[in-house]
Amino acid sequence: MKKMLLSTLVCFTSFTLFAQVQKVKVLTYNIHHAENMKQVLDVQGIANVILATNPDLVALQEVDSVTGRTHQSDQLKELASITGMYTYFVKALDFDGGGYGTGILSRYPINSSTTLPLPSTKGNEPRAAGIVTVKLPGNDSTLCFVTTHLDAGKRATDRIAQANALATYFKETATPVIMAGDFNALPTAKEIGVLKEVFADATAQMGPTFPSDTPKIKIDYIMTAPKHKWTVVAARIIEETVASDHRPVLCELELK
Question: Which pTM does this prediction carry?
Fold first, then answer.
C-alpha cells in the first residue's frame, strides 16, 4: 500500500511540474514593408517564412497598412489570412495615405492591446511599442508580448530614451513579458544595457542579422522578463536571404 501511494505521489508530482512549464515559440522579423532584396513586393514571401517556422507569436517591424507605396494593401491582414493568426497593428506614423509601423501576429486570441508611444526628438521618425496580452492554452498564465522598432539614427540619444521608457514601463510587472524587434543597436550599445537591466537577452549567443544577404551586425533581438521566469530552449537565426533585408530570428522559450 505504501509503495502504491509513493508511486502515485511521484506521478502526481511529475505531472504538476510538467503542467507548470509552458513553451512558447517566438519569431521577430523586420519585413521591410514586404519589399524583398530584388525590390519586389512579396507578402507571400514573408508568409512563407512564418509558415515554415510555425511560431506562436510574431513581432513584425516596418509594416505598411494601406499605403500608396504598397498599393493600398493591408499587409498585416494579408499575413493573417495566409497564416490563420490574430493581429494587432501598431501605427507609428501616417505615411503615403495610410499607416506605417509594427505588427503582431498571434496564434492565441488577443485579450487586450495597447500602443505605447516612445520618446522621439522633433524631426525624427516617431516610434512606438505594440503591447498585447494573451492567455496561454491549457494554462491560466497570462503573457505580455511586445513588438517595437527603435530609432535608426546614427546618434543614440533617441534609442537610449526609448530603451529607458520600455525598461521603466515593464520594470515592476508581475506578468511574464516577451519583447522583440529591431532595436537598431549593437549588443554592446548603452541602450541594450539599459534594456538588460530589466530583460534577459534570449538571443545573446546569436550572430549578425543585417543585412540579410551578407549579415554583418546584430540589431534584432528577443528579450524576456522577469528574468527568473524564462529559459531559452532553442534560438537561431533563419537563413533567409531574399524575403527582406533583415534575417528573421526564432526562439523557443520556456515559461516556468
Answer: 0.91
